[in-house]
Amino acid sequence: xxxxxxxxxxxxxxxxxxxxxxxxxxxxxxxxxxxxxxxxxxxxxxxxxxxxxxxxxxxxxxxxxxxxxxxxxxxxxxxxxxxxxxxxxxxxxxxxxxxxxxxxxxxxxxxxxxxxxxxxxxxxxxxxxxxxxxxxxxxxxxxxxxxxxxxxxxxxxxxxxxxxxxxxxxxxxxxxxxxxxxxxxxxxxxxxxxxxxxxxxxxxxxxxxxxxxxxxxxxxxxxxxxxxxxxxxxxxxxxxxxxxxxxxxxxxxxxxxxxxxxxxxxxxxxxxxxxxxxxxxxxxxxxxxxxxxxxxxxxxxxxxxxxxxxxxxxxxxxxxxxxxxxxxxxxxxxxxxxxxxxxxxxxxxxxxxxxxxxxxxxxxxxxxxxxxxxxxxxxxxxxxxxxxxxxxxxxxxxxxxxxxxxxxxxxxxxxxxxxxxxxxxxxxxxxxxxxxxxxxxxxxxxxxxxxxxxxxxxxxxxxxxxxxxxxxxxxxxxxxxxxxxxxxxxxxxxxxxxxxxxxxxxxxxxxxxxxxxxxxxxxxxxxxxxxxxxxxxxxxxxxxxxxxxxxxxxxxxxxxxxxxxxxxxxxxxxxxxxxxxxxxxxxxxxxxxxxxxxxxxxxxxxxx
Length: 608
Prior knowledge:
Helix content is 60%, strand content 5%. By secondary structure, it is mainly alpha-helical. Strands 2-1-3-5-4 form a 5-stranded mixed sheet. The longest helix is centred in the first third of the chain and has 28 residues, at 109-136. The termini are far apart.
């Protein structure tokens, strides 16, 4: 009998071992990394004390909120009144409204808002992380994600229901997908086409950026890699059409309007009329010196052009795609603003779209400039740490100094740091010193773009030829407070429920509220189209022009509202006596520090 000890070692029985295949190990790493990236928005929210919402500065976001909360009611009440002047254009922005409506139905008003913003953050961060990870490693990917999640413009855009909240994420995700280096390009092209299509149907102005990105991509493919270009273009076209069809079905089922393309086209035609252009677009450039935050855009474009000129043909196609896409879009944006008649830069709800390409290009620049650091195992994490440190320094600084003081002190310090870096590099050319100098340069670059962004707009009086626009609240996006704004949003979304659905088509509703409370009610009155649907005379007393407006509109209902419970609601009912008023419902909506008192009055003279 042969014992096992007599067998050669190569054939002797071995203790069974657990074998992990390379494929399973790689899949585990990918899943773990994806989960970590998915958690970054939540981590950033608590670490940087991100503001969830800014205080309302315009009625327009709520005009979209109403389609998220109760879209069919708006179409039922106002289709005939709004259609001739394209005032239903908010209901056609389905790239925002369809997913936001789904989120609202699943999670409620504030819950749905938060969940959808988390998804938008992932749409922006996810493809950008993958792009930079492939270009510079995990540290570069984390750097890019941090840059996006600490950008005051993007955070502020996410904070409202205006369509730039969705479009800025779609545009960033679409540009990143176009630029991702991959041997399996078709999937990334399909993703880019879907995201860019969503951006256009969320906010038609996004077409400027989508076309610029697509044109640059095609030019680069023709120049550097023509293989399978026709196939990829066909895939992109099919995906774009399919995305549009899905949105049409979603719009029909969730919003009550299947055709959103015709209202979009009609709104573009209406807004392009001379009277509308004069109403919304400044004929003078006098506003530009006051909007300091816009300097970030040409700063990033110029630095990228300098880097591209130095590297020339050695610059990878992905870097070119991002930088050229942003630069071409910025040139088109400036042309439309200063040569054309579109408020692409003077209105922050429009200019925010430019930050999609700007922050991605800024991340590319950090990857290019910081390549010696990313390539070194001991230094590669210094760059994301720098981005985090700059944002945290600003958050801490807001507890002590005003935003204007921080921006002035910070920009002066950044300038001194740049000079110090240059001197240090010239006097001490050692490799370690060069890395320190390079890190100092990146700190100053990152701090400079952040501080320029948060510099408050300089207040000024009326300027000839300048249209009044709301002042962006970028300084509070990091380390800010949003409790009051969330309370207003919560109450605002409950107004349609208080009023109830229309009993029949064209059951028009008008509003009446104290003019002195216009600032406090700027969001609630947007739910029924604000000033267009309001009597704006003295609360409790109708002027002859108010009476003429009511007789022209023939509303079946009046919604009286005030933040003051002692307001003269009864006087309003008396003033409406010629129209046979009947109080249907009174109540109070409250959340946190915000309380809204409401009376719903039926006008029997016009009600069916």
